[in-house]
Amino acid sequence: MRSVVNGDESRLSFWRSVREFAVPPSMIRTATARRSAGDWAGACAAARVDVDLPLRAVARSHGRALAGAVRADLVHLAPDLLRWHMPRIAPDGVLRPGLTVALARHGPLWLVVRTPPHWASAGQRMSLALWDPARPAEGAGGHPHPHPDRRFRLDLHRHLWDVRRADDLLFRSGGLDSSADNGFTDLDGVVPADAGYATNRWVAEAQRVTAAGSEAAGSDATGAAAAGRTGSAVTIRRGSRGRLLLDLDADPPRVTALPRRSAACQYAVELPDAAVWTPPDVDLLRHGLIAPDRLHPLVAAALCPGDDRADGTRPGLDPSAHRSTGSRVGDQDPEAPGDRLVECRGETHRIGVVDGVLVPLDHDPVLLRREELLATLGGPPVPCLREIDRLHRAPEDLDDIRARLTHGDAPGALAVIEHLLGPQAALRPGGLRDALDEATAGRIAYGIYRAGLHGAGLHRAGRHSAGLQSAELNAARLGWFPPERTGRRRPELRAHPRHATAR
After folding, report:
1. What residues contact 251, with CB distance under 8 A and at least 6 apart?
2. CA Rg value for the chain
3. What angle do CA 326, 287, 21 make, to 5 degrees?
4. Cis omega (within 30 of 0) on the bond before 133?
5. Among 274, 80, 94, which Cα is nearest to 169's?
6. From CA 83, how far away is CA 294, in angstroms rounded?
7. Nearest CA-CA partner of 2 in 284, 287, 281, 282
């Protein structure tokens, strides 16, 4: 394993956690099987992508040829691969909220993918739609930013979502060799030392972006605005370190640093993030922090084309072979749960799942009932009952379950819980039930957003409800607070001024 630079350690740890939980293998298997069968809508459903595409209306208004081109993109869309490459934010690696990303352009229409606003993003769902520059707000469903984002664009990076171009990932990302010559002779320390191959890639990506901008400008003004300004120079975002200006007319192309508020930024095309940053999978593989079989199958096949197995196959090509090498239950078909051993009153006892419930196995039923009654009255429970109570409230897999719920993988979280406590378990108050309650509240918030009811101010309650008990959570979602939180003795509920309808 190669050593990791201290400055990159937190970033690589962040992305390793994202790759572990954000796109579970069960989702990849189901979406791949449905897409291979020609069911693109079923693949989107498996990848938790809602479809808002009126293709029949598009055919009537823009012709069958355009509708057919959109449908062809949908047939070859890998929604699980798109989710894999979507922009994410720290600290949990969730999808960047309130984002509209362009996937492809067909005449006057743009195929886009949208993420919900922050208050409705708990389920980590996305939606596919068509954006018309002539009617920018139409069909947006109250999305805060219906216009395609200039920074996050995938229309020039089909290899991040189109299965026909997935093999381009290795070339478009610059490869796995960090020692490649960047081809620039006079950078004056402007380009970071770890850029390596990236500068040559910047030139190629800049040429693609400027060509697309010229094509859009020649067709219509609104398309040019969406594609970016044309010109022979492009700006490259470096996060908080400012920007670079890449001059394509120079021989060889030159890179210079720009002040944060330079006028050149207003007139030059800005390279989208997908054209600039190295995919995290490349860095994880380069430092030996992830195995190819833990990547998305299409990503593994593209980045490790020579990693052949003994049977002649390559990791990632067979969706059924994409299984976790660890013991994460939610990623594979759970087997029958094994018995746990507990030191109880000088003896080693077992607890296990019987008839769907976790129970002690080595206690007499009559004596066990008596011990349960004594514990209910405040007496000290026997170690077996104490261990069962701990597993209901705060099991050792709680962080794993929370990570799955954070990334919207409710089926995977429930599989872990059922494997641990049994499918008929009644959860007790504690951290585990609180995590499930918060996930349920998040699904309600997303339902409110999809139903178009967020204009009544209901989403504002969601921003302040993280610390509420489950009994108060529904009231907060409806814009009300119980009397004990308002300081009034009247038994009825009253509307909180912060959650009143905006006028």
Report:
1. none
2. 27
3. 35
4. no
5. 274
6. 15
7. 287
Query: Among residues 494, 495, 501, which one has the least CA distance to residue 453?
Result: 501
Count of CB atoms situated within 10 Å of the CB of 159: 23
Q: Does a cis peptide bond (omega within 30 degrees of 0) precede residue 319?
A: no
pTM (2 d.p.): 0.78
Q: Tens digit of pLDDT per residue, the chain (503 long)?
A: 344 444 568 889 999 999 999 999 999 999 999 999 999 999 999 999 999 998 999 999 999 999 999 999 999 999 999 999 999 998 999 999 999 999 999 999 999 999 999 999 999 999 999 999 888 777 777 888 999 998 899 999 999 999 999 999 988 887 665 444 444 333 444 454 444 344 677 788 888 888 776 666 555 534 444 444 545 788 888 766 678 888 887 777 778 887 766 655 665 678 888 888 888 999 999 889 999 999 999 999 999 887 654 333 444 433 333 333 333 444 544 445 567 888 888 888 888 888 888 888 888 888 888 888 888 888 788 888 888 889 999 898 899 999 999 999 999 999 999 989 988 888 889 999 999 999 999 999 999 999 888 655 554 544 444 333 443 333 333 333 333 333 433 333 333 433 333 33
Tokens 């640093």 -> residue: 257
Q: How many helices (H) and strands (E) does the chain have?
A: 21, 15
Answer for the pair 77, 162: CB distance below 8 angstroms, yes or no. Answer: yes
The conformational region for residue 259 under phi > 0 = left, psi -120 to 50 = alpha, else beta, is beta
CA distances to 160, 294, 336, 360, 397 from 423, rounded to whole Å, are: 38, 28, 12, 16, 16
User: Angle between the 398-406 and 6-21 helix axes, to the nearest 10 degrees?
Assistant: 80
How far is the C-alpha of 370 from the C-alpha of 381, rounded, in Å? 10
CB 463, CB 452: distance < 8 Å? no
Q: How far is 91 from 145, CA to CA, in rounded Å?
A: 23
CB 369 within 8 A of CB 408: no
Amino acid type, 189? G
Amino acid at 236: I
The number of beta carbons lying within 10 Å of the beta carbon of residue 56 is 9
Instruction: Give the Cα separation of 189 and 203 in Å (integer).
Output: 18
Strand order in the sheet with 269-270: 254-258, 243-247, 233-237, 269-270
Looking at 54-156, list the stretches that DSSP marks H as alpha helix, in order from N- to C-terminal side: 55-62, 64-75, 79-85
Distance separating alpha carbons of residues 340 and 102, to the nearest angstrom: 51
Q: Give 3-state DSSP helix, strand, coil % of the chain, rounded to 5.
A: 45, 15, 40
Whole-number Å distance between alpha carbons of 268 and 235: 6
Cα-based angle 153, 159, 164 (whole degrees, multiple of 5): 135
Task: Tell me how far apart the alpha carbons of residues 436 and 122 are, in angstroms, rounded to a whole number.
Answer: 12
